[in-house]
Specification:
This protein has 207 residues and is mainly alpha-helical. It folds into two domains: 51 residues, Orthogonal Bundle (Arc Repressor Mutant, subunit A), CATH 1.10.10; 137 residues, Tetracycline Repressor, domain 2 (Orthogonal Bundle), CATH 1.10.357.10. 74% of the residues lie in helices and 0% in strands. Helix 5 runs antiparallel to helix 10. The protein is globular, with a radius of gyration of 20 Å. The N and C termini lie far apart (75 Å). GO terms for molecular function: DNA-binding transcription factor activity; transcription cis-regulatory region binding.
């Protein structure tokens, strides 16, 4: 039994080590690649020094690997959102927290352009069905509901997140070469104008 337990512990350590090696290799490859599609599972396996089967056992498929890498990079922001100070943390005033959350999403996607694009364009279908999208939408909707007079928090959350889609970020930052700070300022202005749309705006839209 002792030998079996030691073997199991070694196996778990090996699996954890392999997982870290795969994530580190994928992180490096996606950072340096010209296009997300240029990176294959075989490339990641070779860079990590493991077999392709190891990756499939640990992550399921390419989309699973992308999600895992995305979550690792996102962890500092998630911690700030869940327990950090204002303006990202839960004690922030809703009108301050909404633009701070969107700015965090935009900056994350600017810093992780190829990874975010690969994940949103992956074979999982619509990006709106992705788990991370659902979390951001749910959080934004909950904060928007705390703003008096703001109509339709569900749609508003979708509309605001649309401005941070990876394909739009890639287009603006890559093809149009919009500077980072200009993009942040544009998103902040768009958010402020949308949040200023109280009952009169909603009433006019319904006429």
């Amino acid at each position: 039994m002792t030998g079996s337990g030691a073997t199991e512990r070694r196996s778990r350590k090996d699996a954890a080590r392999n997982r870290e090696a795969v994530l580190a290799a994928a992180d490096d490859l996606f950072t340096r690649c010209g296009s997300p599609e240029d990176v294959t599972m075989a490339d990641v396996a070779a860079a990590a020094g493991v077999g392709k089967g190891t990756i499939f056992r640990a992550f399921g498929d390419r989309a699973g690997l992308l999600r895992a890498l995305y979550e690792v990079r996102l962890e500092p922001i998630r911690e700030a959102v869940e327990a950090g100070p204002p303006p990202l943390g839960p004690t922030a005033a809703p009108r301050d927290r909404v633009p701070a959350l969107l700015d965090a999403v935009l900056c994350f996607k600017l810093d992780n352009r190829r990874l975010a694009l690969a994940l949103e364009e992956g074979g999982s279908g619509s990006p709106y069905r992705a788990e991370h999208y659902g979390r951001w939408h749910g959080l934004l909707q909950a904060v928007l509901e705390q703003i008096p007079g703001l109509p339709d928090s569900d749609f508003t959350a979708h509309a605001l997140l649309a401005a941070t889609r990876a394909d739009l970020v890639e287009h603006l930052a890559g093809e149009e070469r919009v500077p980072r700070e200009k993009m942040r300022a544009q998103l902040a202005d768009f958010t402020a104008r949308l949040l200023a749309c109280g009952p009169p705006c909603g009433a006019a839209a319904g006429e």
